[in-house]
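User: I'm preparing a small set of examples for a lab meeting where we compare how different chains pack in three dimensions. I only have the primary sequence for this one, and I'd like the structure in token form so I can line it up with the others. Please keep the answer compact; I'll paste it straight into my notes.
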Amino acid sequence: MLSLYPEIAPYNEAYLSVSDQHRLWYGEYGNPNGLPAVFLHGGPGSGCEAYHPRFFDPERYRIVLLDQRGAGRSRPHACLKDNTTQDLIDDLETLRTHLKIEQWVVFGGSWGSTLGLAYTQAHAQRVLGLILRGVFLCRDEDIKWFYQQGASEIFPDYWQAYEAVIPESERGDMVAAYYQRLTSDDTEIQLKAAQEWSIWEGNTSTLIPKAEVRAHFGDPQIALSLARIECHYFMNNSYLSPNQLIENAAKLASVPGYIVHGRYDVVCPIDQAYALHQVWPQAKFTIAPTSGHSATEVEIVDALVQATNELADRYT
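Assistant: Understood. Below is the structure token output for the 316-residue chain.
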């Protein structure tokens, strides 16, 4: 099994203004003359973590991390204004141009896979390869499965805590009920809702429970941006047309692709990856047989590092 590359510090960190409102943090790691790659974090709203550049060989890759609007170190924190999928696609092009990169590898997991697909379908000529983990198509049924009914049947104990925030009379639309609280003027109400929303996701992300994953999702700073921005997107159909990512899959035909998905992914069930592979058959599809959703699962790490190594072999 392949593992993550050693810990690495950025050789460059800066902020990029992309609107009157938003300033985005980005960092560059590895070899400044290496194969460019951009890492797209999940959520939306979760932000980048220290282990994220470690999926790439630092001697062969110029690794770019970006905290999307309102997430991580980007400012303003947890901001919903001017925060749409198209904004994030445009931000990637602004950053690519700013860094004088002609083409790059795009790597994204969970919401990062959503954004990676949408970006590549809009700018395929800029993408040398697309690596996706825990595919999230953001269809109505995908949102309902995790936030309304479906995952609740597998984790009824964790669901009880998530559900308890909402009065029984409002539980017919949990996303809308949470949105009301996550956009409340009362910061205590916001934070309570944010932590329960985020912890629900953390509790269900790994096949075997991991205390460090739960702690990450329960961190108030992370929970607030994750919950507010996720809920904001889901209230707006993720700013995608129905089944957009599948219907536009023909635009991926020229792009080398990798799909990695845990067999027991409850956050984003494997049917989403399977549906994508049916319309993008040239992508290499790896099912991690004893894994859940998290990028930290051993089998998933192995498959993702294999993918980045194969693309580096191809282009360097």
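A couple of notes for your slides: The longest helix spans residues 298-315. Residues 143-238 form one domain.

User: Perfect, thanks.
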